[in-house]
């Protein structure tokens, strides 16, 4: 790989030329990394709902042409000036948010919301110089959340790369770089259910099932899955769900149903849909005195959370979380080790696999609601 250091690399990338239109495999030029940047050869990437949401561009600023992708695994090809903790050949997971290790958030044991590298979905350029590292015939192709992994090579800020065990299979652990860690961490790092406790999970997509997996690993005695799609319930049993509720099956609010089932409410709840009604239900279904509700899903920009203050005064706790409260560089390597030690299963999240040339199939699967994660193999 060292032979390409400092040079422009020509490679294939899946370019989104406009909102909602199929990606096109193009030859792009990838510039060398600048100060505090790393050029990475992507081996495996997967599709997350966030990619689809911004590709559709229905509710936010459209930035095109763009290379999407942020769940991935790869190998460092070369490093820019000032990069000391990564070297060519290192195995890495790119992350949509970062850890500069210098700001107040990074120095705090309680936060992972880095001032410098926190997720920015509108920015399509590198923070170093405000320019892109991708181009086609001299015209810029924009980045996505600082990662752009739907390319054989990409350039990423060093603070958004977790160096991991080189023995970890990248075609499996790549899914830990976003959704699975977000859900799992929301439960184990934030909700912190005690052994034998009851937990409700709202939304049984990949993130919600990862939250359920966190409850299972924590030793919860009852894990109640809540989803409007009844077809998800059978799959959820593999992730520890013991009971299922479809709010549409009841005339009363689902939080009342849960309170009746659990003698006053669950000990912990984790909300993974972003639907404001589900968020309120997730809070109101926890037991007074000790119940903790954790919000993971991202709501509509105009949504308002409304509940009676007595629900808080009666000693219920409402928390929010971002990327499962994991610091990308400091904490993600240990999540990979949980997989290596068989404490965390990731294979059951991977339901499809396609070669890079068929990346649009991954979008089709997700738009149809089929499966959880589709691995995209870059070298096929």
From TrEMBL:
Which is an annotated Pfam family here?
A: ADH_N
Q: Which InterPro entries match?
A: ADH-like_C (IPR013149), ADH-like_N (IPR013154), ADH_Zn_CS (IPR002328), GroES-like_sf (IPR011032), NAD(P)-bd_dom_sf (IPR036291)
Subcellular compartments: Cytoplasm
Class in the EC hierarchy, top level: oxidoreductase
What keywords were assigned to this record?
Cytoplasm, Metal-binding, NAD, Oxidoreductase, Zinc
The answer to whether the entry has keyword Oxidoreductase is yes
Q: Which GO terms describe its molecular function?
A: alcohol dehydrogenase (NAD+) activity; S-(hydroxymethyl)glutathione dehydrogenase [NAD(P)+] activity; zinc ion binding
Q: Where is each Alcohol dehydrogenase-like N-terminal domain found?
A: 36-164
The EC number(s) given in the record are 1.1.1.1
Q: Which residues form the Alcohol dehydrogenase-like C-terminal domain?
A: 206-337
Catalysed reaction(s) here are: a primary alcohol + NAD(+) = an aldehyde + NADH + H(+); a secondary alcohol + NAD(+) = a ketone + NADH + H(+)
Output this protein's name.
Alcohol dehydrogenase 1
């Amino acid at each position: 790989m060292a032979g390409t250091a400092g040079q422009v690399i020509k490679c294939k990338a899946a370019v989104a030329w406009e909102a909602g239109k199929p990606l096109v495999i193009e030859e792009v030029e990838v510039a060398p990394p600048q100060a505090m940047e790393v050029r990475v050869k992507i081996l495996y990437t997967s599709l997350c709902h966030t990619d689809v949401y911004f590709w559709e561009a229905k509710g936010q600023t459209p930035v095109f042409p763009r290379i999407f992708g942020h769940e991935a695994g790869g190998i460092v090809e070369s490093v820019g000036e000032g990069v000391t903790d990564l070297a060519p050949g290192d195995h890495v997971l790119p992350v949509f948010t970062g850890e500069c290790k210098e700001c107040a958030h990074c120095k705090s044991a309680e936060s992972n919301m880095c001032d410098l590298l926190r997720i920015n979905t509108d920015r399509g350029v590198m923070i170093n110089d405000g320019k892109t590292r991708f181009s086609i015939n001299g015209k810029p192709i924009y980045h996505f959340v600082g990662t752009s992994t739907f390319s054989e090579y990409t350039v990423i800020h060093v603070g958004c790369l977790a160096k991991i065990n080189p023995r970890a299979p990248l075609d499996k652990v790549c899914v830990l770089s976003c959704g699975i860690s977000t859900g799992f961490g929301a439960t184990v790092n934030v909700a912190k259910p005690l052994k034998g406790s009851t937990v409700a999970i709202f939304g049984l997509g990949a993130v919600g099932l990862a939250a359920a997996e966190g409850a299972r690993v924590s030793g919860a005695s009852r894990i109640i899955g809540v989803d409007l799609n009844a077809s998800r319930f059978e799959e959820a049993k593999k992730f520890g769900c013991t009971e299922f509720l479809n709010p549409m099956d009841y005339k009363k609010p689902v939080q009342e149903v849960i309170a009746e089932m659990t003698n006053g409410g669950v000990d912990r709840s984790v909300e993974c849909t972003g639907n404001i009604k589900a968020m309120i239900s997730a809070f109101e279904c926890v037991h007074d005195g000790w119940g903790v509700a954790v919000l993971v899903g991202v709501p509509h920009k105009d949504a308002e959370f409304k509940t009676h203050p007595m629900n808080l005064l009666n000693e219920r706790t409402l928390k929010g979380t971002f990327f499962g409260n994991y610091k990308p560089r400091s904490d993600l390597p240990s999540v990979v080790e949980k997989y290596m030690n068989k404490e965390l299963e990731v294979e059951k999240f991977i339901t499809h696999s396609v070669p890079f040339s068929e990346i649009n199939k991954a979008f089709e699967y997700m738009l149809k609601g089929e499966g959880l994660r589709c691995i995209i193999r870059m070298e096929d």
